[in-house]
Amino acid sequence: MISFTELLTASDDQLVKIFYKIKVDANDDFIKRINKIAAQLGLNHAQLVCAIGFNKNIRDLTDIISVLGFRDYKLMSYRQNELFTTDTYQQLAIDNILDIYSARLEDVQIMESLRELLIPRLELIEADIEKTRIRRISSVTEWKYMLSIRRALPTKSLQNNVLTRTLASTA
Length: 171
What we know:
- This protein is mostly helical.
- It has one domain (4-170).
- The protein has helices spanning 4-9, 12-20, 30-41, 45-53, 62-67, 73-86, 94-104, 108-135, 140-152, 156-170.
């Protein structure tokens, strides 16, 4: 078992040691492979793909990318981007999101990727908040969203702009 944070921040040597032990069935499609590997590591599908995808050391470890069922880093990053932008704290816990924002912002390529993914992610979460308000369901998602904003956006003015826009659109 490994934590999301440990996989996200693992060195290339640590990643090789982790995946050396992984057993896969070559006949499984990539979704089944990811699910089986995630289960072996004690993670879920989205956690595995995002922790590996946002790990700056994975780019050149093509054997690990292949084990996951992807032909190359670019294809894996498409899946990572899809999972990251469409998850509203169902598969990726708030701690996972905060770890991604905290641990990876020093990597230029990952920071640029996160900038591109941030608005679509926030829009989906905002839509989920709106549904929650309409249905009068608990505001846990709203709280997680506000926490994400505070971590993802570097300045108070950016945070306030996004939060003000969100509150105005849901009023």
